[in-house]
Every structure is written in structure tokens, then in C-alpha cells.
Amino acid sequence: MRQTLLKNSRLSFLMLLGLLLSWVGTAHSATEPGMTGTAPMQHQGQQTEQQAPQHQHEHSEQAMPNNSVGIDEKLGEFIPLDLTFRDKNGQAVLLRDLITGPTIIAPIYYSCPNVCAFLQADLARNLPAIKLQPGQDYRVLSISFDERDTPAAARAARKTYLTAMGQPFPEQAWRFLTADAETSRALTEAAGYHYLRQGKDFLHPVVIFVVTGEGRIVRYLHGTRMLPMDLTLALTEASEGRLGSTIRKVVRFCFSYDSQQKHYVFNLLRIAATVILVTAGGFLLFLFISGRKR
User: Fold this and answer.
1) 3-state SS of the chain?
2) Tens of pLDDT, residues 98-130
3) Are residues 289 and 145 in the same domain?
4) Are residues 224 and 277 in the same domain?
5) What are the φ/ψ torsions at residue 64 (nearest 5 degrees)?
6) Cβ within 8 Å of residue 157, ≥6 positions away
7) What are the distances in angstroms from CA 293 to CA 152, 161, 210, 284, 290?
8) What pTM, to 2 d.p., does this model score?
9) Domain span at residue 14?
10) Residue 260 falls within a domain, yes or no?
């Protein structure tokens, strides 16, 4: 009687394990970011920092014409690294020499009266909280898509945002660049970042994207209210295992990217499923061992 009960218990737990494995697989596929989807757009305009995130318009990747303003996310694709930009001193720099590891790219223009400033101020606020080594584990590039911007404008922006950090930050870890119209357009088009000149200003999305050392796009982060966790996890993805310690693997497991809300979320479903699986597996092992002893 006892052996029959133990046998039935084992069968029941094996069935439970099968169901839970199927559940975890479903949860994983439901929470992983896809290669396509809709993305909220934020356009240039006279607005305050509190109002900036409210100017959002749904955009279909498949329906967007070439001259539209918005984001056509190109996850997994590569940006051209043979482009030449100008640094804050007017020196020519090759993008390939700047992107040697996980890199945050912020498309902006230095005379932008509002959202570009908010975006870079948000970076200045969050970068010191990232538990990675700037200049070694990651780099940031603020790249102007306005050909009228000068190295002097880049120097002024650098001084503003590095001062706003309130602490030392490696000079080579955050570069401020300018370029001619053709060069900046080649970069932004490759990233699916579409903008339009309107008078002296631009209509443009408010987004940064993160690439690997080979220039492969791994994540877009939208808006002007990022969290250090958003940046850390995006950079961890970009590291592709070069920084992949056990801690980071756990972090990537616990958090998944919400493609609708455009930020990372704690994946309670996957964590709960894992805890149940481990508990059930341990109990099944206990039944097996106790049955053999009898």
C-alpha cells in the first residue's frame, strides 16, 4: 500500500513538473522582447520636462514611410562603424575607434531647447549609479544630427553634463560628437531613428540605443526618465557574456524587457515558476530516496 502511494506520488509530481516546465517556457516567450512592434514617439516642441513624456504617438513599424518621424527598431542589426565624426576639439574620430565595447548612443542636437537637454541630464543623473566601470565596461556617445552644431557646442554640452554629475567621470567614457549631415544621417538611418528638420529645430524621437563592441544594436530605451537599472541591464545585454558573471545572469533572469512600456520589469512569473520547480524537484527526490530505503 505504501509503495503504491509512493509510486502514485512520484507520477503526480512528474506530471506537475511537466506542466511547470511548459508554464516557464510560455512565460519566457511572453516576456522576451521581439524584433518588431510598436514604439511610442516623442516629438520636438516647446514643452517642460514634466510634459515631455506625454507627447507619445503609436507608430507601426511596417506602416512607417521613409520620411516619417519615429523609431523603426532594428534590434540585432549593425550600425556602420566606418563613419567619421568630430570630437569636442574638432578632431576627426572614427566610430570604430570609439565603440570598442558596450556603448550607449544618444542621438541629439546641442541647440535643442528641451527634450535633448532632459535626455542628457537624465544620463548625467543615472550614469554614476551604474555599477559598471565607465570607460572600461561601457562608453556613452552623444551624437548631434544637426550639421550646424560645432565642436564648441559639443564642448559646452560636455561641461554642462559632466558638471551636473557632481563627481569625476572619465573623459573618454562620455564623448560629445558632431558630423556633417550625410554622416549623421547614415548612422541614424541604420538605427531606424528618423527625424525631420522644422525651421531651426527638429522633430525627432526621444530615445537612446545600446550597441555591442561590434556595433550590433541590442536595445532601445525610450523617454527622458530612465532608471540606472534600465541602463545597467541594457549594457549587460550588450556585453554578450564578456561581463557575464553569475550575478548578471541572475539579474537577466529576474528582469525581462517590456517592449510595450519600453523598460525592464521584474519577472515575477518566471521567478515563481522556478521556485515551485525547485521545491517540487526536491520533494520528488526525497520521495525517490525514501522509497529506495524502504
Assistant:
1) CHHHHHHHHHHHHHHHHHHHHHHHHHHHHHHCCCCCCCCCECCCCCCCCCCHHHCCECCCCCCCCCCCCEECCCCCCECCCCCEEECCCCCEEEHHHHCCCCEEEEEECCCCCCHHHHHHHHHHHHHHHCCCCECCCEEEEEEECCCCCCHHHHHHHHHHHHHHHCCCCCHHHEEEEECCHHHHHHHHHHCCEECEEECCEEECCCEEEEECCCCEEEEEEECCCCCHHHHHHHHHHHHCCCCCCHHHHHHHHHEEEECCCCEEEECHHHHHHHHHHHHHHHHHHHHHHHHHHC
2) 999 999 999 999 998 788 999 999 999 999 998
3) no
4) no
5) -80, 120
6) 110, 120, 142, 176
7) 80, 68, 56, 14, 5
8) 0.64
9) 2-31+269-293
10) no
Q: What is the spatial distance between Cα 151 and Cα 166, in angstroms, rounded to a whole number? A: 23
- Contact predicate 40/57, CB 8 Å: yes
Q: What domain count does the chain have?
A: 2
The verdict on 210 and 176 lying in the same domain is yes
Residues 6+ apart with CB under 8 A from 181: 147
Q: Are 218 and 238 in contact (CB under 8 A)?
A: yes
| Residue 248 confidence class, pLDDT cut points 50, 70, 90 | very low
Question: Looking at the structure, do residues 22 and 70 belong to the same domain, yes or no?
Answer: no
First to last CA, the chain: 12
Three cell numbers, residue 172: 573618454
| pLDDT exceeds 60 at position 230 | yes
What average pLDDT does the segment 209-234 reach?
A: 86
Single-letter amino acid, residue 244? G
**270 vs 178, 246, 273, CA distance in Å?**
44, 18, 5
CA–CA dist 292, 294 (Å, integer): 5
